[in-house]
Design brief:
The structure is a homodimer. By secondary structure, the first copy, chain A, is an alpha/beta fold. Helix content of chain A is 35%, strand content 14%. Chain A contains twelve helices and 13 strands.
């Protein structure tokens, strides 16, 4: 194991304090070379032969096994591809099929909107009285009534960082006879996760945040090994077929999690991701969590001391928080722009949330102190109150 | 316009005759540099700011407009993302919603299996009596009965190269009141396509074949501008939302084709594709088609002269053929392995098809003659009959 931080493993711009690894992780050192290699030495030199020669066809399973280790899933239970939204759709439609007599998808208001939209699109398509029921995050366990077919919950709230207890929520879902689907977008690589221990049926997640796979890196999907053989995939693509290259007219799903593959995998992105995941062989997740909590606690203490006008929007109890801390401010958008202009990168989430991600792989206490000093200065001098910082843009 | 071929624009291995651009196009010169740039200078240096600074968010629309020019679609009517199978699913489910009183998806036995599988998965999910009706390619027009909700046809048969007349088939579909969905996987960049003229509602396609976008390059989807505002997307992802960064709880589709976006786009793959599409500014599609036909005709004549044991599996009439020529042989698999061992790259499609793609961008008459000479030698000497050439692998 390598002691954290391991800043030299990332290509971070000089002087930048990057507290946005929960939106897009930074470039790991060596990625550019790996990508160059897949483009020039594999695609360029081997062309179609790359599928075998360079292991492209097996890559989703290989990369899936790296993800499995990070989320407590057994070997061979995770595959990669598409985007998180598509993987949510696949898991959700499979989960609904497992409870044909129930009509409710339960989620919470802290879920990422895309998950809710995908549920809405699926319901619109299915008709038949399906319903998306959205409750407050703290009410999830008590809302597990016996009409709930599937509980679809994102473990860590993208705005507040509030973290659900996976074991407890899953037990409540199972107690009500519901299927459990976890979105681990802000969990994988951020906090210790054990999907096998909590016994949830499905988990999905993205890889461009804490896992540093790069912009648009493919998503992952896990299905509990004892249920996977019964899943009838809604997105029945040829690479999820038992024999894709037999080119049969009818669909026969592959034996295991491979049935959740759909089309041709994004080999170049997958290569960047595979390299990024290699870093985790050197990381002790318990140490990572401990450092993440320490950084978050320090940030909260310093902000509350030096920026009293900001209101903590994350749980104060570190056990209920993922690896981010959020503060609310009605001037949040402009303040964040002013921070970014001074090379402290976080992001803003409507309506009033400034969020800061702490990734112990490359963030240390000096970064936290530096960020808070700049934040305090921006607030004290009101330097955020400039026209250019009020100009709305879509993303940070 | 640049005269064809333009071999110097591709990084092709010395001595290789690459007749498999219809499976995976070769690496365009300059792609590696563009990919290096997006990884190092954009992701590495700008991190999350790349979404605005480097135009990542607008890339699917920008690249879509390049595709639009190649398929005769108006500006702003094509977007990019996911895989072709996912785009088939989106178009197909939208098409079914347009004919709520009909239950038949019509396709043909020459369609690529993944399209048929996706239809099967969708039907399985919908229930309600939906049916996938598969007829022989030559029977498509006459099978347009008034119970057909959508005709889902791949213009060029992946095995035989048989090419449908898009205008004629679309007219037949519309005559029966059906919605038309074209899969242009083997058409875009291979033959002149005019989706606006044929008036089809939907077209989809992939970009890693004739368009040289690289392994796993994103797919495209076109919807006719007059219908797009009525589409209720089945895959209702946040990047298809009218205001993704407002993070609203409910889904409101974007105004135009952007509603067919789903999740975060694969920026690195998209960059490789965007570069590859630049080549088409220099290509005259009429000249390309003329050269493609000439190459195919020469190949057929030479193979029939020198390899009489092979049976033409493509239409003899060039007007009914895409940009590939296939020959059938019961030893096809082993013969193709022997060809590949001698650096003539085509591929095999079960049960007995050897297919050869002709891409006039980098293939000329000398390549065709060279390939046939080697093929004739392999057959004459029976050098294909070695154990290693019978060993089955998934892909070429």
């Amino acid at each position: 194991m390598t002691r954290l931080p391991m800043k030299d493993r990332f290509s971070l711009p000089d002087g930048m304090i990057y507290l946005d690894g929960n939106s897009l992780g930074p470039l790991p050192v060596g990625t550019a070379e790996k990508v160059q290699d897949v483009v020039q030495a594999q695609w360029g030199a081997h062309l179609i032969k790359g599928w075998n020669l360079d292991g492209w066809m097996a890559q989703p399973a290989r990369v899936g096994n790296r993800i499995a280790r990070l989320i407590g899933a057994p070997e061979g239970s995770v595959t990669m591809g598409d985007t998180l939204s598509v993987k949510v759709f696949q898991a959700l439609s499979a989960a609904l099929k497992m409870r044909p007599d129930r009509r409710v998808i339960l989620s919470d208001s802290g879920n990422f909107p895309s998950d809710l939209y995908m549920a809405e699109g699926l319901i619109q398509q299915l008709g038949q009285g399906y319903e998306l029921r959205i409750v407050a995050p703290e009410d999830v366990a008590s809302a597990m009534t016996d009409d709930v077919a599937v509980a679809m919950i994102t473990q860590v709230d993208y705005r507040t960082g509030r973290m659900h207890d996976m074991a407890q929520v899953t037990a409540a879902a199972h107690g009500a006879g519901a299927v459990m689907l976890w979105d681990l977008a802000h969990s994988a690589g951020a906090v210790p996760v054990d999907v096998a221990a909590c016994n949830a049926e499905f988990s999905v997640g993205c890889t461009y945040k804490y896992l540093n796979g790069g912009p648009g890196a493919p998503a992952f999907i896990y299905a509990r090994p004892d249920i996977v053989a019964d899943i009838q995939p809604a997105l029945a693509g040829w690479l999820g077929h038992d024999a894709p290259f037999a080119f049969e007219t009818g669909y026969r799903p592959a034996a295991g999690i491979e049935r959740m593959r759909v089309g041709t995998p994004p080999v170049i992105q997958m290569t960047a991701l595979e390299h990024a995941l290699g870093l985790w062989d050197e990381v002790d997740m318990a140490e990572l969590r401990e450092r993440s909590v320490a950084l978050g606690e320090l940030f909260i203490a310093l902000v509350e001391e030096k920026c009293p006008e900001l209101v903590l929007a994350s749980p104060r109890d570190a056990n209920q928080r993922g690896s981010q801390v959020s503060f609310a401010s009605k001037n949040g958008y402009a303040v964040m722009q002013a921070l970014i202009a001074r090379d402290v990168i976080g992001d803003f989430r409507a309506p009033d949330i400034m969020r800061f991600g702490f990734t112990p792989l490359y963030i240390d206490e000096d970064d936290v102190r530096g960020a808070v000093d700049i934040l305090a200065d921006i607030l004290a001098t009101r330097s955020w109150d400039r026209p250019e910082y009020h100009q709305k843009r879509d993303v940070t």
